[in-house]
């Protein structure tokens, strides 16, 4: 059914820490690796070793530079995947009922046997979180590793999404965001976690933790930041010799 | 958005076909016999060709029948139903008008409600097609009442041209041209009006002004191919002028000339080419919000 379920009691999702993410793409690879052999059709590639390789990924890591009004620019790595939205716009548009949101835990999934590969759900997603499988011709998306988190065959510490399990800087957290007592919710509360593009009305479940404020004053990064800083200061503010002459002459022209 | 040839051909051809079926449906003095057969065959061929081409857009066309299931929520599913309904009703009407000429006096006005229903279903199909695009809040240029208005206006205009209604078509062409101009003028502002930016997309606006530093992947991806396609916009202004000239201005002039069969046909050809160009721009100029993550629109 492509009607959205009533508000789920549990809302499983990810909390992604933009402060500690180092942009190593390990989550991208862990996700690709797990989903190559797990839920549904293997996450496919096209022309993998050829001139124009491409493939479906359920997680992508962007890198942005943020320029505050005062202070130096910050570098933020930004993992992007399905946010398992409360009012998932990708679900009601599906003509076949293949795209659905689970009533029990809020995970948004695709029933690949019913998917006709029209791509309308990917158009409806504001976050670009869905990608068509180039070989199976069905829509792929983050399953929140539904085949890991409830999997009794796995050791308990592995019963979390592959991206969370693999993250070397602990920038990814998994939990029930409907439960205010869960570790994930507590983290969102403590760090001022936010939703992406709230103006779309999709009401995403996943939260992002903002980069922490950096120590900084007008003189630079503070005395202790870099012992080499005094030696790296420019020795001549004004150009000398030939360059100085060129600079003065061109300045007059 | 990627201007997929299958979708451009589908929306243009099926719009014309269903537009013609709508005019045939409400005609109080419909053609009969061989003339009716010709009109209905042209309309059905256009509508079916459009629907056939649209199946090319599916990655798993053998499962297309499943699209009838979710009519409660999905405009794509509703489109499948209205298209089937329109073809069935118009088919019945067309068969009666072609082969049942002996029955017609007995039926009298009894045939009219069938025609009205067929016309409603035909325009309903065009409406559902347009709503597939208009419902997408992710594409602010499409997410507007003017999207179904323009699709319906083009279908009605094209249908009037195809069915040889010169006076009606002339007025419809002028009105549709004005609507198209306004859609371009207003559409250019809709992305900014929706308030999306890289700052809201990343939530980093609270710290400062974000800009993309390096890409998430070096190869292309489905999202980039499909949603972040900017190549088709390069000649947008010239194409707009060309589209408006071919779609409305030239046909209006041609329709006023003598020899309506020759110049009417030329007006139709010009109009259809113009609609193709307009539909190309409809896709190529549409900006999807997910492009923001890639620093593009």
Could you tell me the radius of gyration of chain B in angstroms? Answer: 21 Å
Instruction: Point out poorly predicted stretches of chain A.
Output: none
- Derived structural class of chain B: mainly alpha
CATH architecture of chain A: 2-Layer Sandwich
Task: Write down the CATH class of chain A.
Answer: Alpha Beta
Termini gap of chain B: 9 Å
Taken as a percent bin, the fraction of beta residues of chain B is under 5%
Major β-sheet of chain A, in short?
A: 3 strands, mixed
Content of β-strand of chain A? 15-25%
Descriptive overview:
The complex is a heterodimer of chains A (253) and B (297). Chain A contains seven helices and eleven strands. Chain A has one domain (12-209): Alpha-Beta Plaits. Chain A starts with 11 loop residues before the first strand and ends with a helix. Chain A is 20% helix and 18% strand. By secondary structure, chain B is an all-alpha fold. Chain B folds into two domains: 1-135; 165-297, no CATH class. In chain B, 67% of the residues lie in helices and 2% in strands. The model of chain B has no long low-confidence stretch (mean pLDDT 92). At the A-B interface, strand 3, strand 4, strand 5, helix 2 and strand 8 of A face helix 3, helix 8, strand 1 and helix 9 of B. Chain A: InterPro entries: 4Fe4S_Fe-S-bd, 4Fe4S_Fe_S_CS, ET_IronSulfur_Cluster-Binding. Chain A: This is Fe-S-cluster-containing dehydrogenase component. Chain A: Residues 12-42, 72-104, 106-135 form the 4Fe-4S ferredoxin-type domain. Chain A: Pfam families: Fer4_11, Fer4_4.
């Amino acid at each position: 059914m492509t009607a959205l379920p009533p508000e789920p009691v549990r809302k499983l999702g990810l909390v992604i820490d933009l402060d500690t993410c180092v942009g190593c793409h390990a989550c991208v690879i862990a996700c690709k690796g797990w989903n190559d052999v797990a839920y549904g059709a293997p996450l496919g590639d096209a022309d993998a070793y050829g001139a124009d390789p491409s493939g479906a990924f359920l997680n992508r890591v962007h890198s942005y530079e943020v320029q505050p009004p005062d202070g130096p620019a910050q570098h933020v790595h930004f993992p992007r995947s399905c946010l398992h939205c409360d009012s998932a716009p990708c679900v009601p548009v599906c003509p076949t009922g293949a795209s659905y949101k689970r009533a029990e835990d809020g995970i948004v999934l695709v029933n690949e046997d019913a998917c006709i590969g029209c791509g309308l759900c990917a158009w409806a997603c504001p976050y670009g979180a869905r990608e068509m499988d180039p070989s199976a011709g069905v829509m792929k998306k983050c399953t929140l590793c539904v085949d890991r988190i409830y999997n009794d065959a796995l050791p308990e510490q592995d019963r979390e999404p592959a991206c969370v399990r693999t993250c070397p800087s602990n920038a990814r957290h998994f939990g029930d965001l409907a439960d205010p007592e869960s570790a994930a919710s507590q983290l969102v509360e403590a760090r001022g976690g936010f939703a992406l593009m709230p103006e779309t009305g999709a009401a995403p479940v996943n939260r992002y933790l903002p980069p922490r404020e950096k120590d900084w004053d007008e003189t630079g990064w503070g005395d202790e930041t870099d012992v080499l800083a005094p030696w790296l200061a420019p020795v001549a503010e004004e150009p000398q010799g030939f360059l100085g002459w060129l600079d003065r002459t061109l300045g007059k022209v | 958005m990627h201007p997929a040839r299958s979708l451009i051909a589908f929306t243009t051809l099926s719009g014309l076909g269903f537009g013609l079926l709508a005019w045939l449906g409400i005609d109080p003095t419909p053609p009969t016999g061989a003339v009716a057969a010709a009109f209905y065959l042209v309309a059905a061929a256009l509508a079916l060709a459009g629907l056939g081409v649209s199946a090319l857009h599916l990655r798993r066309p053998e499962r297309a029948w499943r699209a009838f299931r979710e009519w409660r929520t999905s405009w794509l599913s509703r489109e499948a139903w209205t298209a089937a309904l329109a073809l069935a009703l118009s088919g019945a009407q067309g068969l009666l008008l072609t082969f049942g000429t002996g029955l017609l006096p007995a039926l009298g006005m009894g045939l009219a409600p069938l025609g009205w229903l067929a016309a409603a279903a035909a325009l309903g199909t065009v409406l559902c097609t347009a709503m597939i695009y208009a419902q997408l809040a992710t594409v602010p240029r499409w997410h507007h009442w003017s999207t179904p208005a323009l699709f319906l206006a083009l279908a009605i205009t094209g249908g009037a041209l195809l069915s040889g209604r010169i006076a009606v078509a002339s007025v419809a062409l002028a009105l549709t041209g004005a609507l198209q101009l306004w859609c371009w003028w207003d559409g250019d502002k809709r992305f900014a009006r929706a308030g999306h930016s890289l700052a809201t997309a990343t939530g980093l606006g609270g710290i400062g002004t974000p800009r993309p530093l390096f890409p998430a992947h070096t190869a292309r991806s489905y999202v980039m191919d499909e949603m972040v396609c900017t190549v088709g916009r390069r000649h947008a202004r010239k194409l707009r002028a060309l589209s408006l000239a071919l779609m409305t201005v030239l046909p209006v002039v041609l329709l006023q000339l003598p020899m309506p069969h020759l110049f009417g046909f030329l007006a139709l050809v010009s109009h259809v080419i113009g609609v193709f160009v307009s539909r190309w721009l409809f896709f190529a100029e549409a900006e999807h919000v997910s492009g923001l993550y890639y620093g593009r629109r």
